[in-house]
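If your schedule permits, I should be very grateful for your opinion on a structural question. Thank you for your consideration; the sequence and its tokens are set out here:

===
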Amino acid sequence: MNRSRRHFLQNTAFALAGSTLFSSRLFASQAANTITGIQLYTVRDEMKKDPLGTLKALSDMGFQYVEHANYVNRKFYGFSATDFKKVLTDHGLKMLSGHTVLGKEHWNEQKREFTDAWKYTVEDAATVGQQFVISPWFDETLRKNIEDMKRYMIVFNLCGELCRKWDMRFGYHNHNFEFTQSLEGIKVFDIILQYTDPNLVTQQLDIGNLYGTGANAYEIISRYPGRFISMHVKDEMKSSGKGEMNDGFDSTILGTGVANVKAIVDLAKQNGTQHFIIEQESYQAKTPLECAAEDLKVLKGWGY
């Protein structure tokens, strides 16, 4: 490891210590500027069958913001970035964030640069109007040991620099392995938070995904104030099967489960979270659109 990289890793290790000061400066005047959106994975089958009708239904029920989970061959749900932005605008919607996995195939280690495929991903995100490019996965091959993880956090930071050129930010979205897997006694989630620059890499905390791990979302937000600009808002209930994350829990209508969601989102808002994104993946005999409408009603009732 050369001196400059070692120096960088040493410096980024102090990112956690500086995050509180960073967050207070960046978010103090923006805490009230929150948006409520929906992750389109909630209505994934409907979007596959009838994207225009589904977007209209979401708009009619009161949503103004959506987050995508489908970007393939430079298209969002089959539309180019320009065309999909028009579709959204026609339905009174904006898409400020989206999920696209930053994989190891998107970084050329020899050239020390991102591949064209990833550069196009960022460009298209900017074209459609996103503020955040969010990667919702971290490949298992990149987290076999702590040194590999630290090195790849440099790639995360560099992606933050790339996104900043387009007036966007790069972000990471957790599942559950981040809280169950440890390397040298440090949880993968803490490695990500400690070795990414909060000025370059934000975090989207999925409070449902972590529930079955024993991790405490309330405690995590308190420990890393200002790091979670975006949040996936979910409630959880005991599953009749393995559960969505193989942890014995399924997502359910907000306020009807066991996750103490309102207290968590209230704390998150106090600590700089601006985007509250509804996501529900199990529906308990209701339709996904019915669940979306009920979730929105609950969140609005809470003041969001």
In short: The CA atoms of residues 5 and 224 lie 25 Å apart.
